[in-house]
Every structure is written in structure tokens, then in C-alpha cells.
Design goal:
The chain is mostly beta strands. It has one domain: Alpha-Beta Complex (Phosphatidylethanolamine-binding Protein), CATH 3.90.280. A hairpin with an 8-residue loop joins strand 3 and strand 4. The longest helix has 8 residues. The termini are far apart. This is PEBP family protein.
């Protein structure tokens, strides 16, 4: 069974509800993980908006220290793991907040199965650079949001 990521909050390819947006309640959506491959030591989750008008897009969430046997990240349950930096200059979930009138943005939620523990709380770019060789498998789901 392949690694899979889903959410009861929204289906992949559909709109992310307002409650999860930065200007809404800024709730962190619940995620469901299945098909974790053999040899996985730890999981990492990242949410990234490549449509943001910035050179490297905008990272909304980095989450580390997720045990390999985890099947659910509960809504607003990130504190059970190790929230890392986002591009708001904060730690943990920072919901969608694209520029008004910029059109729909795509929010890629990635889960990475690693054969080693991620150390510390790297930003997205550092994680991808430093742990590329430790990624066994990855999966994604995409939500849409516009203001």
C-alpha cells in the first residue's frame, strides 16, 4: 500500500474552508496518514503554497517528530509533535492568506516518510536539502484557497 495523505476537512483539489485560513479561526486541519512504508523512522509534514508571489513560494507549516505509526494528526493537535517554522515568522500552523484578488492558490500538504529522525526544526528549504537522501516515500494532497 502506497503512502497516502488525506483530510476530513477538505478533499484534495477542493477549497480549504475559511476556518483554516489565517483570517478565519486559523485552525490546523486534521490529517490522516496511511500506507507508511517499512523502514520509516519518522514522518514530517509540510504545507507549502507555490503560488505565493515570492521567489520560493510560502511555507505555512512544518511539523516534525511524527512517529512512524501515526495515522492521524488531530485538528489543532500539532503540539503532540514538533511544530517548526513557517514563513509568517511563527512556529506551527499558519493558515492560507494569499493577496486579495490574486486568484486561487494551491496549498500542497506533503507527508514525508524518513529513514532517520529529522533534527531540530529546520525551515522547509533546509529540510528538503538536508533530508532528501532520507526520504523513503512522499505523498501529497492539495487544497485551494483565494481571497
Amino acid at each position: 500500500m502506497a503512502l497516502s495523505l488525506s483530510s476530513p476537512a477538505f478533499a484534495t483539489g477542493t477549497a480549504i474552508p475559511e476556518r483554516y485560513a489565517k483570517a478565519g479561526a486559523n485552525d490546523q486541519p486534521e490529517l490522516l496518514i496511511s500506507g507508511v512504508p517499512q523502514g520509516t523512522v519518522e514522518l514530517t509534514v509540510i504545507c507549502h503554497d507555490p503560488d505565493a508571489p515570492m521567489p520560493n513560494g510560502f511555507t505555512h507549516w512544518t511539523l516534525y517528530g511524527i512517529p512512524a505509526g501515526t495515522t492521524q494528526i488531530p485538528q489543532n493537535g500539532e503540539a503532540s509533535f514538533r511544530p517548526g517554522p513557517n514563513d509568517y515568522g511563527e512556529t506551527g500552523w499558519g493558515g492560507p492568506h494569499p493577496p486579495e484578488g490574486h486568484g486561487p492558490h494551491h496549498y500542497f500538504f506533503w507527508v514525508y516518510a524518513l529513514d532517520a529522525e529529522a533534527q531540530g526544526m529546520p525551515d522547509r528549504d533546509s529540510f528538503l536539502r538536508d533530508y532528501a537522501g532520507n526520504i523513503i516515500e512522499q505523498a501529497r494532497m492539495v487544497g485551494l484557497y483565494e481571497r
